[in-house]
Amino acid sequence: QVQLVESGGGVVQPGGSLRLSCAASGIDVTNFGIHWVRQAPGKGLEWVAIIRYDGRNKYNTDSVKGRFTISRDNSKNTVYLQMNSLRPEDAAVYYCAKDLGFWTSYYYMDVWGKGTTVTVSS
Amino acid sequence: EVVLTQSPATLSVSPGESATLSCRASQSDNSDLAWYQQKPGQAPRLLIYDASNRATGIPARFSGSGSGTDFTFTINSLEPEDSAVYYCQQRTVFGGGTKVEIK
Predict the structure, then answer these.
(1) Residue A91 in contact with residue A40, Cβ under 8 Å?
(2) Cis link prior to B8 (omega < 30° from 0)?
(3) Residues of chain B positioned with their CB less than 8 A from the CB of A113
(4) Are residues A106 and B87, on separate chains, in Cβ contact within 8 Å?
């Protein structure tokens, strides 16, 4: 059974940092792309970043460029989202999700974690 | 970047009836479109990909169609459990969602 479990959320002041983790089980993250998607309170879904199966190709949305970094630890089968210079508008539930594609990225997300909440407030 | 516009914003339908949702893209991106269901307090669930392919375990009463810039998602024989927000998605862009309410 494929499962993704996020952790690392919390309350942080504007300008602060957090590192989110997405621990995968039932799959090898070196075979699938992993996405981060966020949802601000009462709002819709916003794609944040992807690390592709090869671990080398990484992309993120413009609003987090230069502030958020996606990475992976193959030995722990875990994907991370390092978030720096956090802003109030980054407050959201952050989900990690598995790409449907095997050794490719379709940008369809077929397995999701339950999410971790990030609050940015002074 | 493509913009996905979903309509209507809210749809109220009686059990057993059908619901039809629309997703319009600001530019054509062939058929690379997905539909997700999200219930309150839950993560989204993939229902449809490539515009018309049902994801694993999704009942046949959920269907999708369309290509280019106009896509449609249909739920037949609505059940109370189908009450949710439905999102369309193309690659890194999500639509604003349609809330389906069961009367």
Answers:
(1) yes
(2) yes
(3) 43
(4) no
Position of tokens 């189908």?
B82
Taking CA atoms, what residue in B is nearest to A115? B43
**Predicted local distance difference test score (pLDDT) of residue B98:** 98
Measured between alpha carbons, how far is A120 from B6 in angstroms, rounded to an integer? 29
Query: B44-75, pLDDT tens digit by residue?
Result: 999 999 999 999 999 999 999 999 999 999 99
CB contact under 8 A, A108 and B96: no
CA distance A121 to B16: 45
Exposure pattern of B4-37 as b/e (b: 16+ CB <10 Å)? bebeeeebebeeeeebebbbbbeeebebbbbbbb
- φ and ψ of A88, to 5 deg: -55, -35
Residues facing B59 on adjacent strands: none
